[in-house]
Write a sequence for this structure.
């Protein structure tokens, strides 16, 4: 199947409307029911809030200016994430940069560090009176020393920085998946036409990577709108902090639900803009992507590229992890061993719920994504499925309690199913983005060809589309798995008493006083849990650089 | 190769389906393994939501039946701080306790959402205003513990829906490297003085203690005064940080030399070797004193384990329960006769040594709504 070839040039933008029978509109809406139901419940809750309450909420928050500021902050975070994540993925997948294999492994690991823990680390390091300042002060022999940046560290700029740094792996994973699949013959052809490496990158590689970069960037951008932990620690006011105030200080789930719907509307606008920007373009190529890829030789830039990787690795991984590890030295080896051994129940809990959530989300995303890919457009099901990402976890968690107890009380108290459900609602969007980006590189007529040859739709999807979109989909699954694995705000509410996951443990050890050594130890476990499936995927999947087809 | 991946995914899915369906209600078992750690108190099997209530237990209420009960305690206090109480209670009664920790407002909303099918037996919160609000919604059981007799009346709900267990005071914490003791503020009203420009931090309206504190000002000094005070504070460059812990850490680092927060954060910072001092404001002869707020415990309405829950309340109010609740962060026992002993941190006063106003927490809880309306936007964290 891999060697299906077409006579047409390898790289083209297709606008085809494949007439392949696919999941009907009704079916697609049914599939998005798990997200549509909670969303409907949020609407119902919001109707319980008085309009003046919501309106004054928006006006008092200075909604217009606030949104502009948050949009700027989110854009800043996205730029940082793309600047770190995209080159990282390209360097390790396509160049001869030193240490590319190690940095390839490290790429998605920062995802395991909960962003609010990352923010805490950067505050303890950089805040006035923090480690950097006291360190510099003692170095200079002064009692105090202050770098003149507190106004920058806190507020939207600092928040954008932290969100961007910890958003980089989203971009990395998406781009890395796309590069695995990218047909090197396109680049070869461009080279053969006499284009220099820079031109090749700009006119061939970059356009092909556009959907993946967009998918990753969108996740970071929207996350900046939804995040609460980082922005509150970095002292930036966002729309979500306003929602939180209504929820926490006003005890009004109705008002919080109503304001969350505004976030949903924003996400929908962005999705529509994204759709317009990418058009219905498909970046397809013939199926010879498994050939040996020629590494771009960086020449004298090698070490500069290496320095970039070290810097990106330091910002996203080494510094936060190092700070946490330094905490571990407060424990003796035997204490640490006993503690880690004691965490195995939580590890198992985390694995169960994260697997349930990620696989269910992947299944839904594949169904809806395939339909969108065949039709060339997502449609309402796709929009619906992605709305949940915009709902703050606390609001979603509390609403799901009410919803499940009203509709399906049997579900409440069954953590694997209930948390899996919540994770589908929260993370269907990133999953669908990843799946669509992966599918965007598969030519639609290959499936048609398989169908024409008498294969059933399922076989066509699994055996033709599967292998081509495989690496991207596998990377997407990993991303969703990690997002589920580290979810905190909905989990804290929805878990039955006694059913803790690793992020809940980190939170329990961090609450009120900042992370203690035990929080660091649990964070370390989380990094391992994220690292293992990634290394397995890397080992089993095609190695972008070395494998041959 | 992809078939391998697909196969792996299918296998995982199969395992999950088995895990999800095969063991529908014994989900807590996973955490049992975690029991050895001293800092985790909870892992006992989660109560089976579907299990038929044991008819014998219902009928006889013997001690043996109580011992079979598994008590779910929703706790707004850090798990480490609750663990010693839970362990002592389990030791004493053989009743297994499972803690579900969360932020006070989250747990309060959760109890509201679960009102038709309560999953908590005991509600332990750091926010008396929130407890009063739940009581007014009829979600808390009336229970007057025999041990509550000695708790000062102001720290108990008039209808006995909640009982104060331990207390905390509203304080000023200063960084002694940045503020000389002679220059330290003596009153919260000093903090609007230009002398303290850009030096003060306080927590946002999301903190229950901030709402209660302002509700106290509101009810004693009036709306205009309270709003003006906060406006003046902010005009004097006071920073609004999300939570009390953020305020304490900012003071500890010297980033904001003066913080308005609760007294036990001083204990945390002191243990971290931060250069901090604790100030009890407004203690002079003609002054108002500073607010002392209770942490409260309640039996949740509709619980199937009301008797075990009541025993938990009794135990928390007994000397054997007060000691493990207070030694770690030096909060005040509300039952007389409990001494912190060696655990007392220098600078922390006992409740008898603090000049404090007599307040009606029911009234304050009612005033909280107005506080949020008036000051919500002023006291939202962030820039």
């Amino acid at each position: 199947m891999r060697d299906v070839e077409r006579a047409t040039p390898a790289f083209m933008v297709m606008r085809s409307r494949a007439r392949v029978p696919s999941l009907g509109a009704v079916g697609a809406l049914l599939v998005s029911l798990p997200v549509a139901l909670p969303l409907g419940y949020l609407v119902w809750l919001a109707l319980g809030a008085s309009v003046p309450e919501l309106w004054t909420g928006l006006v008092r928050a200075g909604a217009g200016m606030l949104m502009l500021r948050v949009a700027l902050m989110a854009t800043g975070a996205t730029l940082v994430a793309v600047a770190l994540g995209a080159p990282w993925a390209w360097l390790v997948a396509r160049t001869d940069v030193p240490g590319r294999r190690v940095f390839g492994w490290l790429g998605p690991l920062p995802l395991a560090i909960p962003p609010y823990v990352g923010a805490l680390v950067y505050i303890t390091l950089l805040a006035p009176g923090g480690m950097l300042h006291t360190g510099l002060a003692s170095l200079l022999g002064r009692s105090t020393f202050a770098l003149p940046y507190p106004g920058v560290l806190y507020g939207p700029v600092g928040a954008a920085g932290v969100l961007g740094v910890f958003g980089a792996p989203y971009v990395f994973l998406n781009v890395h998946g796309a590069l695995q699949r990218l047909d090197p013959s396109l680049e070869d052809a461009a080279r053969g036409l006499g284009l220099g490496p820079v031109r090749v990158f700009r006119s061939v590689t970059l356009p092909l990577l556009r959907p993946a970069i967009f998918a990753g960037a969108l996740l970071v951008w929207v996350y900046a709108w939804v995040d609460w932990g980082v922005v509150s620690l970095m002292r930036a006011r966002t729309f979500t902090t306003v929602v939180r105030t209504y929820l926490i200080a006003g005890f009004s789930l109705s008002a919080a639900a109503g304001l969350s719907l505004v976030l949903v509307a924003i996400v929908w606008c962005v999705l529509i803009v994204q759709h317009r920007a990418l058009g219905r373009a498909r970046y397809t190529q013939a199926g010879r992507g498994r050939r040996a890829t020629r590494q771009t030789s960086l020449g004298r830039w090698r070490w500069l590229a290496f320095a970039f990787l070290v810097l990106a690795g330091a910002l996203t991984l080494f510094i936060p992890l190092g700070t946490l590890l330094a905490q571990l030295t407060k424990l003796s080896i035997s204490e640490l061993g006993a503690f880690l051994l004691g965490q195995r129940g939580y590890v198992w809990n985390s694995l169960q719920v994260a697997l349930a959530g990620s696989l269910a989300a992947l299944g839904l995303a594949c169904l809806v994504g395939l339909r969108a890919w065949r039709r060339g457009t997502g449609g309402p099901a796709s929009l619906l499925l992605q709305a949940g990402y915009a709902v703050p976890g606390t609001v979603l968690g509390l609403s799901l309690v009410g919803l499940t107890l009203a509709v399906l009380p049997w579900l409440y108290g069954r953590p694997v199913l209930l948390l899996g459900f919540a994770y589908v609602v929260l993370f269907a969007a990133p999953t669908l983005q990843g799946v669509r980006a992966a599918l965007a590189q598969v030519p639609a007529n290959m499936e048609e060809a398989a169908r024409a040859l008498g294969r059933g739709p399922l076989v066509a999807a699994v055996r033709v589309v599967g292998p081509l979109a495989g690496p991207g989909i596998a990377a997407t699954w990993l991303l969703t798995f990690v997002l589920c694995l580290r979810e905190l705000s909905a989990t804290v509410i929805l878990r039955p008493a006694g059913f803790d996951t690793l992020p809940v443990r980190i939170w329990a050890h961090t609450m009120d006083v900042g992370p203690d050594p035990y929080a660091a130890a649990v964070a370390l476990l989380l990094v391992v849990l994220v690292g293992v499936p990634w290394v397995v995927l890397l080992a089993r999947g095609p190695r972008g650089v070395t494998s041959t087809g | 190769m992809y078939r391998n991946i697909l196969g792996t995914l299918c296998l995982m899915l199969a395992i999950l389906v088995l895990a999800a369906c095969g063991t529908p209600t014994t989900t807590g078992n996973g955490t049992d393994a975690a029991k050895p750690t001293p800092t985790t108190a909870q892992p006992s099997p989660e109560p089976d939501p579907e299990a038929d209530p044991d008819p014998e237990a219902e009928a006889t209420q013997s001690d043996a039946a109580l011992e079979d009960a598994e008590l779910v305690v929703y706790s707004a206090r850090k798990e480490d701080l609750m663990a010693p109480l839970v362990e002592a209670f389990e030791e004493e009664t053989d009743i297994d306790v499972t803690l579900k920790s969360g932020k006070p407002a989250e747990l309060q909303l959760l109890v509201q959402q679960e009102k038709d099918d309560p999953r908590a037996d005991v509600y332990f919160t750091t926010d008396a205003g929130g407890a009063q609000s739940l009581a007014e919604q009829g979600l808390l059981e009336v229970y007057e513990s025999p041990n509550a007799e000695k708790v000062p009346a102001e720290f108990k709900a008039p209808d006995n829906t909640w009982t104060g267990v331990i207390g905390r005071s509203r304080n000023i914490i200063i960084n002694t490297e940045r503020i000389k003791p002679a220059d330290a503020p003596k009153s919260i009203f000093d903090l609007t003085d230009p002398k303290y420009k850009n030096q003060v931090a306080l927590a946002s309206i999301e903190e229950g203690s901030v709402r209660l504190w302002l509700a106290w000002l509101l009810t004693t000094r009036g709306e205009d005064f309270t709003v003006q005070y906060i406006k003046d504070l902010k005009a004097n460059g006071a920073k609004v940080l999300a939570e009390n812990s953020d305020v304490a850490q900012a003071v500890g680092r010297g980033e904001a030399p003066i913080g308005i927060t609760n007294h036990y954060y001083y204990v945390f910072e002191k243990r971290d070797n931060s250069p901090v001092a604790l100030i009890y404001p407004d203690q002079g002869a003609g002054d108002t004193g500073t607010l002392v707020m209770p942490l409260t415990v309640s039996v949740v309405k509709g619980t199937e384990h009301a008797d075990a829950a009541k025993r938990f309340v009794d135990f928390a109010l007994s000397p054997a329960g007060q000691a493990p609740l207070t030694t770690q962060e030096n909060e005040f026992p509300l039952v007389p006769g409990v001494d912190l002993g060696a655990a007392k941190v220098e600078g922390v006063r006992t409740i008898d040594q603090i000049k404090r106003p007599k307040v009606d927490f029911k009234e304050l809880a009612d005033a909280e709504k107005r506080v949020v309306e008036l000051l919500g936007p002023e006291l939202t964290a962030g820039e």
About this structure: Chain B touches chain A through 87 residues (CB under 8 Å). The first helix of chain B runs from residue 2 to 22. Residues 168-291+363-375 of chain B form a domain with the D-Maltodextrin-Binding Protein; domain 2 fold (CATH 3.40.190.10). Confidence is low (pLDDT under 50) at residues 18-62 of chain B.
